[in-house]
Amino acid sequence: MAKRILVAYDTIHGSTAEIAEFVGKELIEEGNVVEVHRVTEVTDVNSYQAVVVGSPVKIENWTEDAVDFLSRHKQALSQRPIAMFFTCLATLKRTPEDGLGRVMTHYVSPLLEQFPDLKPVSIGVFTGVLDYNKYTEEGAAGIRRFMSERGAPVEGRHDCRDWQAIRVWSKEVSTRLETSKGEWVVVATGQR
Prior knowledge:
Elements (H helix, E strand, L loop, with lengths): L3 E6 L5 H15 L3 E6 L11 E9 L2 E2 L1 H9 L1 H4 L4 E6 L12 H15 L7 E5 L2 E3 L5 H12 L8 E3 L3 H16 L6 E5 L3
Parallel strand pairs: 1-2, 1-3, 3-5, 5-6, 6-9
Antiparallel strand pairs: 3-4, 7-8
Helix pairs in contact: 1-6
């Protein structure tokens, strides 16, 4: 049975917005009725049967607007199936000590601890777009240091999104939102 699903996202440079639109299209292909909106545009989630929320990670946190969305709607979100996805450059060229364990420890767990009533049925962790031209000089210098430690590119623009993995996750999310049992899995995708 088709669900009415909201895909709510925040974005900094547009990469997460493109993933949200892609997830929305995949959910539609699975027979759902889907609306995709930026978190700042959403005033009510009660008319949706399920919600997918996505945000980029900036300095090891979701964006303020994404966290504010979860806070404003936490009661309604706790009463319906939700899925979450992160876009995170730390997944790019990750080293063994900087893999899924770090993502869980630094990005996923703190957010779930902040909102203990939210029980996502799935969490996607995706690499986004690395575009040094989108950062200030100071910001680009910090990212270069971080990326060079991982053997990742330190100049230019690099679209590191794995669209096939995002497609697979979206289809899984459609099923999990339909058959929600309150258990969740983390799916981390990106270049290794």
